[in-house]
Amino acid sequence: MTQGLVERWQLAKFLHFRESENTKPILAPSPRSDNERDLRRHLGICPKELAHNVNFLLRVHIPDGLHIVTTETRTELSQNQIVRLLLTDALEDALALRRRIQEVEPLNLYVHERMPAILVALLILFLISLGCLMGIFTLLPDMHWLFVLPILLLLPVILTGSLLVQVYVFFSWIEGRSMERALASRHKASRGPVANWVQQKLKVDLGPFPSVPWFLSTIFVLAPLVMLAYTWLPAAAAFIALAILMPVLYALYDR
Hints:
Blueprint: H1 3-12, E1 25-27, H2 36-43, E2 54-61, E3 67-73, H3 79-103, H4 105-113, H5 115-137, H6 145-183, H7 193-202, H8 214-231, H9 233-254
Antiparallel strand pairs: 1-2, 2-3
């Protein structure tokens, strides 16, 4: 792997890169812009980094080397802007991740080499999505009849939303694992207490914590599982156990 490819991949988690015949320029909005959504859309910065005192990347040019200019901005986000960030940016993050998997050669190779394990993981995520659907179903008998039909119409949305959120988090996680593997120990992220405990007890490195769209995860995954636990605790415990064991088993396979 050449140094230029490593540098491009280091930027891949934060930038939407474009290929052209001669150069690879990425131009962001003017530093005077106070529109965080435009900056986020152009630069691919994670939502959690859109807080106060953020260093936004303003210009990147990658022909043969690497050049970054940064500036600091402080803004107050209104409630409407926050809602847009929570919804619109989640979709943009997912599309950017899909593009990186397709276009970043080391990541694409990593995914293809581990496709059997990834397919098994996706099957487990689909089962967890069915558990989220069960959480809604189990509450239907206790609902007023006026709410039953709207909830039934929303069931496909809940199933699809829970699956897509889980798939995004999973691929964000394996992207971090593949990046660390390619960059060796030079850019190893710090581990959380749970990952450190698993590494000490099971000798398994779970890798860096993935990017999680918490708002959508709460709506489509956490809330339905809580509803399922309220009405059918053993089933909820089984699905939660699947969600915990899946990354551990994948990490065992991938070490």
